[in-house]
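Figure 3 (text version): structure tokens given as input.
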């Protein structure tokens, strides 16, 4: 009995000491009024849904930037401002033209869509089949094949991948491969599980894409043909094609990521960076945003992702008051809702060397249905799991792992773009245990407004996020992926392991 009493006493003493230590941290003193004010501005009706490419998205970026300035963050890499320009192109198909396969005339939308390219008329031009039309260090589908002045036909997607998003992202690279080899046009035979009508609705209309780094990027027609016509493109029977298509117009549109740097307190560890990220954009207004109601057409995006943006702004304030041992790079991304494009751009154009960035903790989610939890997408994929669990527990929350692994959520948020470079990068999301009615009630709905938020929970959520980040930033060793993770190879290449 005496031993039990002694152990209980020690537990109380240790718990009390930890609680006292935590209570002295800036995040413990975070104000509910302050986090609510961030939400009520970022997700206000006046911000009109913060859609990438629209002026209120730039206003949101400036709001984040001026909060960075107010708290004394430095700009990264000697930049003049906290804003990193992200060049987009507004692509608008004219939806005019036809593709002739023998005597069959394929029509815009119903049978094919053209994603990019100039106005082109080709009559009875030879067809060349090139498998996937893919080129990398392992294969070159153009090797030994003359495609100059010809129409290249390829199967959809990229080799050895059943990830629809990866296949879609690889599409633009494939047309560049065709153009570099001299092709006159590039046709892909669509075969994904998504219905053709859904694809044409999304890909065949006006949309924003990242502007190519190379101004002389391909201008040959890039066409997708519906899966209902694949048999007409049989290699054995098809030798020539004709097409007559109008130009897909493009206009440059500028958006911005927002970046700030805080130097660490340790003379050695300050050369390494913890990266804290969240996207600030949402889906806008009207039917381009989603399902509207008679009384409301504004998609405020309080949960998605004013939550994450507020967590970042709160983290900035906490860490400037008490810096961590490692330096911290704060990034607010644009363009998440249109394909993770802001984070994709940053991963290819980093302002802090990626090799110095040892961990990234993204903050994004669809909403919450359990206010006793935080959901960490990728919790068990890195060895920083104990720090995240402890960070949540300190504020009365339980950190749980991905409740819907079949949804592949890890690769559907901004965290994936740094993860693909090798940086351990989980996503810290509000507590959800399933995609149920409570989640669907607010996810990309006009109902996701500041008035619908549980601010007591948001306060704990932000505190748990900040303290988890602090524990990771103060670790003596840099975090790493668990052995065998799909991104472990990239990790080893990045850090020279």
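Below: residues designed for each position.
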């Amino acid at each position: 009995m005496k031993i039990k009493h002694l152990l209980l006493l020690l537990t109380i003493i240790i718990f009390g000491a930890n609680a006292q230590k935590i209570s002295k941290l800036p995040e413990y003193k975070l104000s509910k009024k302050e986090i609510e004010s961030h939400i009520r501005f970022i997700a206000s009706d006046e911000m009109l849904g913060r859609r990438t490419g629209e002026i209120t998205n730039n206003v949101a970026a400036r709001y984040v930037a001026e909060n960075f300035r107010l708290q004394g963050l430095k700009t990264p890499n000697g930049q003049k401002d906290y804003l990193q320009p992200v060049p987009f192109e507004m692509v608008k198909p004219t939806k005019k033209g036809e593709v002739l396969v023998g005597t069959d005339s394929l029509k815009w939308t119903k049978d094919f869509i053209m994603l990019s390219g100039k106005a082109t008329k080709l009559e009875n031009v030879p067809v060349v089949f090139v498998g996937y039309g893919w080129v990398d260090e392992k294969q070159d589908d153009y090797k030994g094949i003359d495609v100059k002045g010809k129409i290249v036909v390829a199967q959809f997607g990229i080799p050895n991948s059943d990830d629809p998003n990866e296949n879609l992202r690889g599409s633009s690279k494939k047309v560049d491969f065709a153009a570099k080899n001299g092709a006159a046009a590039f046709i892909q035979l669509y075969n994904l599980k998504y219905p053709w009508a859904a694809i044409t609705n999304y890909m065949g209309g006006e949309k924003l894409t990242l502007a190519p780094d190379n101004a002389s990027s391909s201008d040959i027609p890039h066409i997708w043909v519906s899966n209902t016509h694949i048999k007409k493109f049989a290699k054995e029977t098809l030798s020539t094609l004709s097409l007559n298509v109008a130009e897909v117009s493009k206009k440059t549109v500028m958006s911005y990521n927002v970046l700030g740097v805080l130097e660490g307190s340790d003379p050695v560890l300050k050369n390494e960076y913890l990266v804290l990220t969240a996207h600030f954009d949402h889906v806008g207004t009207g039917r381009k945003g989603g399902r509207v109601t008679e009384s409301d057409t504004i998609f405020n995006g309080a949960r998605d992702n004013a939550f994450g943006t507020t967590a970042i702004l709160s983290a900035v304030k906490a860490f400037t008051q008490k810096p961590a041992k490692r330096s911290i790079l704060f990034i607010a991304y644009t363009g998440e809702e249109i394909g993770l494009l802001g984070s994709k751009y940053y991963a290819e154009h980093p302002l802090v060397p990626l090799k110095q960035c040892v961990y990234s903790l993204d903050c994004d989610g669809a909403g919450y249905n359990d206010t006793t939890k935080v959901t960490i997408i990728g919790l068990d994929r890195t060895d920083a799991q104990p720090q995240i669990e402890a960070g949540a527990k300190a504020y009365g929350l339980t950190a749980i792992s991905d409740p819907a692994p079949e949804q592949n959520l890890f690769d559907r948020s901004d965290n994936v773009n740094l993860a693909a470079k090798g940086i351990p990068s989980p996503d810290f999301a509000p507590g959800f245990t399933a995609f149920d009615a409570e989640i669907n009630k607010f996810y990309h709905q006009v109902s996701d407004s500041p008035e619908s938020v549980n601010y007591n929970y948001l306060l704990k959520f932000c505190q748990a996020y900040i303290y988890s980040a602090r524990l990771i930033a103060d670790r003596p060793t840099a975090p790493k992926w668990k052995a065998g993770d799909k991104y472990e190879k990239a990790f080893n290449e990045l850090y020279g392991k």
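The domain at 94-247 is CATH 3.50.30.30 (Glucose Oxidase; domain 1).
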